[in-house]
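Write out this protein's structure.
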Amino acid sequence: MKLAKIFCATLLLILAVAISGCGGGSTSTGTGTKTVAVCFPNTTESWQRNGDSLTKFLQEEGFDVDVQFSDTSEKQLQQVKDAIAKKPGCIVIAAIDSGAFVNVLDDAKKNNVPVISVERMLLNTDAVNYHAGFDGAAVGEGMGEYLEAALNLKNGGGPYNIEFFAGSPTDSGANVYFSNAMKILEPYLRSGQLVCRSGQTSFDQVAVAEWNSANARPRIKDIFNKYYTDATLNVVLSPNDDIAGVLLEEFRAAGKPLPLISGLDGDPAALERIKNGQQTFTVAKPPEILAAKCVRMIKSVVEGTQPDINDITSSDNGVLIVPSYLCTPQIVDNTNIGLYLK
């Protein structure tokens, strides 16, 4: 997925595509009941917006919605167990810990409760019927290609100092974003056009536990103190908008010039930072797009028809390839910020 492909479309065009008719897919196992259980994280603002959008769209379609948010994996596991016990028509899960649901989802399968994973693939279980989310490979490639173009690396730009941050190790999508961004950027590390003075370039070294932006503060301070007392940090690959905001706060606190910096989610605060020239760009995942696709998928599952699927090859959860609908993310920077700011 190339940068141009995810850069050009306007929000109105995408929404029109997102709510268009359904095509073929895998056979569903719906129970017919109009109750839908939704279990989402509450770890970032974007998840609240996703949950609110999905609830609104489902209610408009006549569903009863039991939505639960959680800030810990343990609490979310209990919420999922409680939801399965009520035997809803479908349970929709965005996991805090993608690998934590193997045993509990066995109960969903035994009780014929269809399971849809959202954004974060549920790993190592055969109880997942479908997956809906944004294309994680496109997110990472878009980040990498944006920085490649902004720094003119293809034409020999550099050298630039760069540091890396990634998402939570318990989120199955975090390494997808990071590895696909690094696929674009690693050749420039090898050529010396990009220089990582800390040497911290592996996912394990740069992951931010639980996507908690506060967990990024000690590391960026350490990086400043050890590697940039006499050098400028030009570029930061940040895995989302919350973490980008914290990193920019630390740049200002240290009296350092702001870097080119990425983000993810299209949070309102990040859009304001882009407008004000503080954050370079974000990869937006508008909740209305994901909610529209989720609702159509849920409706098909509950009614026992085939949902709209556009990916049957790449969504491997370690046990099976999960039939998926992958939405297209959107690059937002100062050239198109007006389309996204309300």
